[in-house]
Amino acid sequence: MTNPQQIQPVFILAEDTKRTRGRDAQRLNIAAAKAVAETVRTTLGPKGMDKMIVDSLGDITVTNDGVTILEEMDIQHPAAKMVVEVAKTQEREIGDGTTTAVVLAGELLKQAEDLLDKDIHPTIIARGYRVAANRAIQILEKMARPITEKDKILLKKIAITAMTGKGAEASKEMLADLVVKAVLQVAERKDGKLHINKEDIKIEKRVGGSIEDTELIDGIVLDKERVHPGMPKFIENAKIALIDSALEIKSTEIDAKINIADPEKLQAFLSMEENMLREMVDKIVKTGANVVFCQKGIDDLAQHFLAKQGILAARRVSKSDMEKLARATGARIVTRLDDLSSKDLGKAKLVEEVKVGDDGMIFVRGCPKARSVTILVRGGTEHVVEEIKRALEDAIGDTISALKVGKAVGGAGATEVELAMQLRKYSESLKGRTQLAVKAFAEALDIIPRTLAENSGLDPIDTLTALRAAHDKGNKWAGINVFTGKVINSWNEGVIEPLQIKTQAISSATEVAIMILRIDDIVIGGKSENEGKGAKSENFEY
Q1: CA angle at residue 319 from 317 to 321, to 5 degrees?
Q2: What is the pLDDT of residue 542?
Q3: Is 99 one of the catalytic residues?
Q4: Domain contains 6
Q5: Nearest to 387 by CA among 11, 51, 9
Q6: Residues 345, 239: one domain?
Q7: Does residue 43 have an active-site annotation?
Q8: Does the active-site annotation cover 177?
Q9: Which parts of the chain register pLDDT below 50?
Q10: Bridge partners, residue 496, by sequence
Q11: Is the domain of 206 the same as that of 257?
């Protein structure tokens, strides 16, 4: 019979594997998530501060855009990375509300930590959070007001709300007008549904001038120049050919040598190449095209022939720009030059090369029924232009989201306070420990108005008390004016956000909070066999 004292311990993991279990694992993950939330929390709201991030190459980014900050920071902690994914999802789905989603996720975990300290099991908290999130989305659907493409004033207010507090705030009225015009121009109604592709609104940026010089072009702006100085700088009533093949002599697919001993044969060979290029250009001329955008290269000799025919041409145009040009001008992208005909050509009132800043750009203007447009952003410095671009992307995302879902809600913390109030009432109808989790969820929602107040230099307790009193009286749009500190009707004051920002933030923040709560064992692998032989490894510190 074996003596129990002689049984050797069984090691199933590598010797240098790190392992953290139980409450310690939960505390570490929650601490990491809270740290991420605290990082971006000070950027929330119209009076949020900016962050300066300097990367390893010395490049500087100055922004208060949540997802940009988290991406530039290169976060390594695995639980923190999960919270960063919340911001990326919010950015991908709507384009705005990233800071709200991350701050809410951090606060949900903070509230959960208090419940864990009271010996409430993580799965009970998770169930309560799911119940609360589902109820919150139902409440939001009932609260929201309808919005359509005819409500241009409301759409402009949504765009202004998205840009308030960012670098674009000084010119938000003018920029909001551009955003609404751009979105409505690319919108299409099919089978009773509104279809809007964010990719159809191109944002080009150029340093120089002021923010007020930013303009909307009913067509496309290409960061390209004419391929030949002999080509015309502008062409009115342009007929545009989009070619996805090289205007060059094809080289053989296998290595080949051509030996020419006789000078006459050499001249004949060169003449043949010249004639082939001339034929290519003649095919374009026959269609009546006077502007050519080529996705691939254009031979020097072909450039010369095109210039002689008075055709403006640009080469190496990106695939995405070619698709936008097709949407804007009505042209068809042709992959074989032999197939090009006059029916494939697009139209524009004017195509011109304009010097913007130090470089030339090609403007394709006056496209009839343009389904693709460009906003050319101007500003004094590279950092200003970048931040204006991010603000415009947020405003475009919000406007598109509001139109797609067809509903909007009040901002300024009003929606969160109303949700929290209704969830507290709802929790009283529940039994057992789930009730505590739903109440904790409601408390977590208060972090948004609390943060808005803190970032504005207001007393968060006084602000929350005033907001709750207003909501108790039935004013569901009671929010905080961060400039005066007074309670306002956010909808009447024009502080409006799309419904989807709120629903997506609540959904994604709840999901990541539940996922982190359910982790009770962290195993970090030791060194691989290849390590030390040049293999790359990652080390996480807890």
Answers
A1: 65
A2: 38
A3: yes
A4: no
A5: 51
A6: yes
A7: no
A8: no
A9: 252, 528-542
A10: 410
A11: no
